[in-house]
# Entry
Amino acid sequence: MQYHDVVVVGGGLAGLRAALEVNMHNLRVAILSKVYPIRSHSVAAQGGINAPLGNHPRGAHDSWERHAFDTVKGSDYLADQDAAVRMAKDAAERIIEMEHWGCPFSRTPNGKIAQRPFGGAGFPRTCFAADKTGHMLIHTLFEQIVKYEQAAERGELKIYNEWLVTSLVIEGGVCRGVIALELATGKLEAFKADAVLFATGGCGRLYTNSTNAMINTGMGMAVPFWAGIPLKDMEFIQFHPTTLYGSNILMTEGCRGEGGYLTNKRNERFLANYPDSRKGMEVAPRDIVSRNITTEILEGRAFENAYVNLDLRHLGEERIAARLPAIREICRKFLGIDPVHEPIPVQPGQHYTMGGIDVNSDGASPAKGFYAAGEASCVSVHGANRLGGNSLLETIVFGKIAGEHMSNYVFGKTDLGAGDKTLEDALAQEEKKLKALMNSDGGENPSNLKEEMQRMMTDKVGIFRTKESLSDAQRKIRELRDRYKKVRLRYTGGPYNYDLASTIELKGSIDVAETVIVGALAREESRGSQFRRDFPARNDEKFLQHTLAYFTPEGPRLDYKDVTLGYWEPKERKY
Amino acid sequence: MADLTFKIFRFDPANDAGPRFDTYTVPAFKKGLTVLESLYYIQDKLDGSLAFRASCREGICGSCAMHINGKYRLACETQVADLKSDSITIRPLGHLKVLRDLVVDMEPFFAKYKYIKPFLMPGDDAPPDRERPQTEGQHSKMIPSIDCILCACCHSSCTVTATDPEYLGPAALLWADRFVLDSRDNALKERLRLVDQLHGIWRCHTIFSCQEVCPKDLDPTGAIADLKRKAIRHRFLGR
Ligand SMILES: Cc1cc2nc3c(=O)[nH]c(=O)nc-3n(C[C@H](O)[C@H](O)[C@H](O)COP(=O)(O)OP(=O)(O)OC[C@H]3O[C@@H](n4cnc5c(N)ncnc54)[C@H](O)[C@@H]3O)c2cc1C
Ligand code: SF4
Ligand code: FES
# Structure
């Protein structure tokens, strides 16, 4: 058994920031991550990170109040307003801190952090490092981790690279630790900790067409779900309007922020034809632009009935090279086109999970000592729709807050050291389960199940939903859950057994997918990213509340809880 | 398009006496098919035991570097069509221990990166509520090196790394230069102390293979040359 004061699961931005904070409080902290931290999905973020710094000439009057309001409005009033306020208030401090740690942000002519306009924001508020903001941020945080890993002046900071956490151990409402699989050896190990934080990212790979890394399976949400922690608002899945046709690699919102156009096959800037995007045009919020593109596709005004064009040509080579170099590189490498001379074929794709592990604005879950931060969590700052640039911000703001809160919790904890027996039992049980999986001799190939799930989610639980499509999805996911019992591994060796790891994760994906479906089916309204054709209006009377999904072996049980209001009255969301 | 033949390096040090190549046939199932997608096809449909690393599938995380038809590259951004051959041979990264199949031990590579102190050492207190100013010109000096994704293609292609296991290697040295070039950093002396040594910058024979293979089009050779110049100036002029 391994002992640490705090275990952080996930080496993305949220996990690294939380671990750093715990380390600053001089506790022994371990980061467990199934890939090297810098391989986390955070590295792929492009467009930028929000903070009301007021560095843009048009941003002088920006403030945390406006930022918080834009966030709440963008969320279609489902965000908890206290959490949105907390995020906006801390934003500037976190960004400046990242700059002080060395983050190479792009600069304004007078040497300040540059900012650009993003959808749904009243001012140009998005700080960026060209179109590689995630790469620059995660490397900066990782550098600080390296620094303190080497430094003797603080408590121990240890990284376990390539460990897959498979279960969370909670005993009588108190978190005791986790069980994890070492990919290098195929062995399970128990990690005892007084506090555990999950920062395991989103679950984009429930879908075929996703901008997410291949590792974003949702397993990190499933683990606490199985341990009795509810998942909140899982039905809200963001679809990004502009992903590369074919591979769904993201074409950042920065493309539109910098002035790119969207055109259909009649060469019209069709967003002008829709009342909800007429004013904002290309920088209208993502859910709106995604729906309008999808309508173009469904009504036959798209190229090959599949994509529209993102046209950057009028921006000119110099601006594209300076502000969107990665976009240009991706287009060249994956499509063989140069956006300086040709428009980019794009279609909407799954992008972000607004929902996740139910935590409050301290990052604390209903179980003592168990925390979550980042995309895996649902603090609920994004509500029904996240604004671009707010999720990177969420990772470092709430990563820090949760780290601080956890540290205080550990310092005040009275039963330090309890839980060995529970963890030993949990480890033994997990070993039994693993052995059973290794020896299972059914006929199902796990990768076929995965493919069927991803296709079904894309077709039935996508941008437009109906009772019929969602009921079909529910039937299908139950079928997959049953068939999973008969999966057979193709490889049973120990070291780097990715067949085993991905099969374990598939179980997580299936159970998490079911929470999305069931939540969407029950929510008979349209709000933010969830558009129900059969219930096109928002229904505050019934659904101005968070969905909570609790695990049961028969499928998720739903419950609801109130949204925290208090700053702004919900009103119709108009742009 | 014709079917593709993949010859893939296989080795499980725990069970195999030696490495071998396994051959798989993959249909060219879509336009723009990448090597990584083909590897997933093999793992999903043909052989669940194949081990390789991948994450972002878009050339930014650095997981999937491997030796593909004679060159170190990222599997995810390499289109099969661009290889201009129906036969594709894949080996793991070089000069690093194979743990299984295409998975190698990255620890020695990261140890070198960590050795050069890859973090900002400003040496003074930052202004409390705002950023350190940096002009666009100062910022753009760093641009050629801040894109490194630590994929180790350069490390594997370097002949010096092969013969001198202690040589810091192109990636670590590029990172040292990245901080030297940062107008906010103030630790030139310390940074030069770390790299101006037998297994540091002077081991580089300027063969340019690192620059040639880098999937991010970076120039570690140039970064090393920059450090050499600065080291010499420092020795003679003390700054
Ligand atoms: C292509 C793309 C571009 C984006 N661009 C922007 C942008 O410009 N601005 C913005 O604000 N947001 C953007 N986002 C969203 C943002 O990048 C993510 O929400 C954010 O990076 C998530 O960070 P995280 O730390 O929560 O998780 P991640 O970075 O996803 O990290 C998750 C970590 O958990 C680990 N993990 C997962 N499960 C387990 C397990 N069971 N055991 C052990 N480890 C596990 C993984 O190894 C990984 O280290 C973008 C998203 C995408 C898809
Ligand atoms: S310099 Fe280039 S090849 Fe070397 S690790 Fe960095 S990105 Fe990879
Ligand atoms: S999978 Fe990330 S670089 Fe290839």
